[in-house]
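seq as requested:
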Amino acid sequence: MDVAPPPAASPSVADALTPRQIGLILFALTLGGFAIGTSEFASMGLMPNMVASLGVTEPQVGHLISAYALGVVVGAPLLAILGAGWKRKTLLLALMGFYVLGNLASALGPTYESLLVFRFIAGLPHGAYFGVAALTAVAISPPNKRGRAISLVMLGLTLAILIGNPLATWLGQVIDWRWVFAFVALIALVTATLLAIWLPTGIDGARAHPLDELRAFNRVQVWQALGIGAIGFAGMFCVFSYLAPTMLDVTRVSPAWIPLGLAGFGVGGVIGNFVGGWLFDRMQLRGVWIVLAWAVAMLLLFPLMAQTLPTILLATVGIGLMGALGPILQSHLMDVAGEAQTLAAASHHAAFNTANALGPWLGGMAITAGFGWTSTGYVGAAMAVAGLLIYAWAQQTLRAGEAADAVACESSR
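struct tokens:
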């Protein structure tokens, strides 16, 4: 089955950009991803601080993580559809402005219940921003380097895990966790300013009507790719969400080591991000099974590796390599989505945040049931296996489509 690359920007605009201009645009898009990633993952590293400040349990803080993720799941398709006819620059600026307000509200939320609402609101523009940012990066990049362009946009997320989240954890320990969300709002404001200055107004593909996006989105290949992300990636979040209490109660280290543990996920994520772009440019969707098979092995080893500091740090790097799934699935979605480019690109992040909601929820159930902090590794491995099963279905569908195309081509001769 043939797939076509997504619509590109107007050649007169994209081709006129110098390498320096392209670099500045990609930097601004990556900075926005850094702000979003820092906000998204901050509650994981700040879990002990938020428990003490709000008077709630660790699984309840996990619900704050899930509330944000649910906001992404709801907001990604909704805002992508509503903004389908907008210019990409206008939509990116509006989404970043929305993110500023959502994180300011999170910083000022007085109660646990208000934080649940504000974290949901903050998550709404997340997926749509990354979707439009990915389309913008592809529009200014050569066709044979789409995977690399998307991996650069996604680099903001992985750098947030590597740098932003450990800094947020440290800031929460020495000052107050609320300042982290205020800091994120400031970075989002800087991002909007840079995009307003550096991004030309003509970086747009073909205009889509919201109903056209919805009709084109109704394809089994799209839903299979989203299912791989939503189910297969949940294992990483299952472990990541409860890393702080695991390090305190199982590894038995001081809180000062938690930022380093979180940075391990970032190291793995940065490596995985570039590996994912490389795999897609060479193997297309087939790169998925390599990433998920690795994930199953690392997640099964996690309970054993959590017992000592050196091994749990190594485990976080290994599990963080699951980030390679991001560029592979994002690029594949843009190939199979047809006219639903904005909706598919945004829904990719809705799928990954479904994983972000599902992982902490399932991990919290296992912990609450008395299976211990390290049970998150076994739960996560089961989710990665489920992702492999969806991948096998997707490959079967792809082969069937290719066979049908070959028969149709033969009969037309």
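Confidence is low (pLDDT under 50) at residues 1-5.
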